[in-house]
Design goal:
This protein has 333 residues and is α/β, with parallel strands linked by helices. The protein has a single domain, classed as Rossmann fold (3-Layer(aba) Sandwich). Strands 3-2-1-4-5-6-10 form a seven-stranded parallel sheet, with helices on both faces. It has a three-stranded mixed sheet with strand order 7-9-11. The longest helix has 24 residues. It binds nicotinamide-adenine-dinucleotide (NAD). The site of nicotinamide-adenine-dinucleotide has 30 residues, from α1, α4, β5 and β7.
């Protein structure tokens, strides 16, 4: 039977990977992709399925209630996966307003329109809503600690971005508790892979290196992130959407902790191998710049709940997937 899924932000980095995976995995799906196409959204990210009759694209703002209502009235989705967000911490420091509008108001509008439509259609007991959250809602850990955040760790977000994501995350949980909606949350660590907008660390490093421009590194470069391959994250999202327990949060970590400077050296080594240029031509471009205000030191997630209850693992070998991502990104500009 055809099931209609609404994906928001499906022209962005992770959303497009999820859209492509779903279209390949579920022959009977009807997938509606609602995306406003901000600077971070690129329709080419999903061009290989754009003409598929099972796919519908709607250009709209998640915070525009009449536009979202029109989508629910026309397509009656019974699965919602909400990726759409302003996603760059630096931009949230320069201008937080749009982060509150999209990530907080937009999430509440989407939840509320879904709730009303599902009540009217008598889908409240079956339709599911997955909010894509982030490890950044937990705040950071000291570099020297070996602790990892669990789903029960308190929320201590640091930047306007992570605060806006935490607000959306808690709003989704409130719609479960208050209205009985079947909402679920994934909180993932930093994703890497193809189709990422070149303002984020990995594509930015590669783009600058190829252009022979300074490669900026914040502060001492020792901030640690846990890297997760985007395809593995999308498998986790699929598992939680279909089999997770409503009202629950699932951490999705990659178990690949690296300091920013070590990651940059790995990327430049890979680039030198792939282009045949001396590695020194790239490493000499590394330029330390003043630290980002409030820069989180270390993120680390415990994903045991997801692996034990839903049998998920971050299965992609890190170095292979990273090399493939470098190769893909290198060919994309
Ligand atoms: N990238 C990561 O490492 C990471 C890690 C954890 C969580 N997340 C979360 O995953 C989700 C996707 O992240 P990403 O890196 O793919 O983001 P992205 O910036 O690459 O893509 C965001 C997408 O949302 C769309 N969008 C933005 N504002 C919109 C609006 N008002 N209405 C409709 N569409 C809008 C954009 O056009 C774009 O296609 C976000 O919610 C983000 O917080 C990302």
């Amino acid at each position: 039977m055809t099931e209609t899924m609404l994906v928001t932000g499906g022209c962005g980095f992770i959303g497009s990977c999820f859209v492509l995976q779903q279209m390949h995995q579920y022959p009977d799906i009807h997938l509606v992709n609602l995306d406003m196409l901000t600077y971070a959204g690129n329709p080419d990210n999903v061009k290989e399925i754009a003409d598929d009759p099972r796919y519908t694209f709607v250009q709209a703002d998640v915070a525009d209630r009449p536009a979202v209502e029109a989508v629910f009235r026309e397509y009656h989705p019974t699965l919602v996966v909400h990726f759409a967000a302003e996603s760059h911490v630096d931009r949230s420091i320069d201008g937080p307003d749009v982060f509150v509008r999209t990530n907080v108001l937009g999430t509440q509008v989407l939840l509320d329109v879904a709730r009303k439509q599902w009540q009217e259609d008598a889908y409240m007991d079956t339709a599911r809503f997955l909010y894509i959250s982030t490890d950044e809602v937990y705040g950071d850990l000291p570099i020297e600690s070996t602790a990892k955040f669990t789903e029960d760790s308190p929320l201590h977000p640091s930047s306007p971005y992570s605060v806006s994501k935490a607000a959306g995350d808690l709003m989704a949980l409130a719609y479960h508790r208050t209205y009985g909606m079947l909402t679920l949350i994934t909180r993932s660590s930093n994703n890497y892979g193809p189709r990422q907008y070149p303002e984020k660390l990995i594509p930015l490093t590669i783009k600058k290196a190829l252009a022979g421009e300074p490669i900026p590194v914040y502060g001492d470069g020792l901030n640690v992130r846990d890297w997760l391959y985007v395809e593995d994250n999308c498998h986790a999202i699929d598992a939680v959407l279909h089999h997770g327990t409503p009202g629950q949060v699932y951490n999705v970590g990659g178990d690949n902790e690296l300091s920013n400077i070590d990651l940059i050296h790995l990327l430049l080594h890979a680039l030198a191998q792939q282009t045949g240029k001396p590695e020194q031509d790239y490493t000499k471009l590394i330029t330390f710049v003043p630290d980002r205000p409030g820069h989180d030191r270390r993120y680390a997630l415990n994903s045991c709940k997801l692996s034990t209850s839903l049998d998920w693992t971050a299965g992609s070998p890190f170095m292979d997937s990273l090399m493939q991502s470098v190769s893909w990104l290198r060919g994309s500009w």
